[in-house]
Fold each of these.
Amino acid sequence: MCKTLFVMQLSINHFIEIRSLNLKPGTREEFHRLYIEEALPLLKRWDFDVVAHGPSLYDENSYYVIRRFDSLAQREQMEDAYYASDDWRKGPREAMLALIENYTDIVLELDEVTVQGLRK
């Protein structure tokens, strides 16, 4: 007797935040250094899933950060806790904010395959 097992793969969606930062002219190299050396290790310690980050290919004053969350509520909770923490406030906050003119967040719901495709 032959049995066939059908496995249905459920599509798991994630919420992706794309942060587009406009930096003050001539500061992108310093911002990138601060991000790699200070902010990224801190975000990892706080269990943020940083999918990708780096200088924009479009212009010399732009930078992007892509982060993944399981829900919009998780995003809000994690960001509220992180940005209110002493780790951020007494850490790289002042140096990084001094280099930013403004930023925009875009939040999308994407499937796992697409999220993995965004990873560097």
Amino acid sequence: MLVTTTAIKKKDIRKLSFEEVKSEVIAMGEKPFRAKQIWEWLWKKSAHSFHEMSNISKTTRERLSDSFDLLPIGVDNTQISEDRTIKSAFNLHDGHLIEGVLIPTDDRMTACVSSQVGCSLSCKFCATGYMDRKRNLDAGEIYDQVVEIAHQAEEHYQVPLSNIVYMGMGEPLLNYANVLKSIEHITSPDGLGMSPKRITVSTAGIAKMIKKLADDEVKFNLALSLHAANDTKRNTIMPINESNSLESLKEALQYFYKKTRSRVTFEYILFYGFNDGLEDADELYQFTKYVPSKVNIIEYNPISEATFKKADPRALDKFAAYLEERDVTVVVRRSRGKDIDAACGQLANKEKTN
């Protein structure tokens, strides 16, 4: 007689809460303290397999491996820019690829991490926006990017990771639960123990989710990818603005500041002949009045899918000076990693994904 068996689908242990892990451990006949050991291996020591858990018996490790999945990301390849920026393609357990970047500067080591495979927002200047969104990343997959990039900082530059920006592939606020869970693991004393003030989450502008951040009283920093303080222009380059107008974003940001008392960063890429004039600078200045903020002016990095051009350096200087003369805090972010397509707006895997 032919007997068929169906493989039992294992649970991803990193999707479980601590209390759920403890319940599972007790159900296996183990003492409750074993859950604490496992949790530490998962989120403090960043174990890639159950067999690394050396203070747990071999028999228990084998039972864990039989019952649960542990699905870390892997490094598919890395590229090092002439300016020392490192871009990595990470492979996920289901065959998809994402990208993350280590950005070294004189005073910090920053990890730029992705939150989705692809993106659904279709911003016209961003390479990721020309990809389809395949899926959201799990909290563990976001966490793993930070761990791998931190290793790169130590290995290549002997400097610890100091900052994290959620500015890679995807819209973080459309993967809200996993993004916040990943930050919890990164900042928890039971995890990597990083200060939330060294973490910035960047959004293209989803008003209701900005308000949810406020209600959740988050401690990390918020950045808004603005790029035009004029609805007509912003609609042209960022379709999300059609359902999240500048007025709605203004109200959401004011609510966010009222709840968190955290200053907002406005990110503003300058495009030649589009948003680089003094009239544009004044519109941005008026928008900065709504909430305590600073402005990051970002050099545009051309992509093959779009026809936008980098603004003239003189226009950039005039734009920045206009804001500074009106007491706006301005930082000009020069391009990093352009030669390896690692700069702002250039992340889009050239590899085929499933």
Amino acid sequence: MIDGSRGGNSARFLNHACSPNCEAIETGERVFIHALAAIAPGEELFIDYGLAVDGAVTNDIRAQYTCHCGTSAGRRTMLGKQR
């Protein structure tokens, strides 16, 4: 998990978007950021967090993980598909 509130490297500055321009690829214990499209210098980097929570996803949980990316394809949550 990448968590910007717990130190780490520059990957902590990646923000969530439902239509991301990057994806995180895990290889062993390392995470690589791969561009999904051409990214102009100075353009913000976005990944789909696809977060998972333990237990049932309640309305309270949904409210805590609301997405405000504003894309037309937005699913309005930073949560991924639940099992």
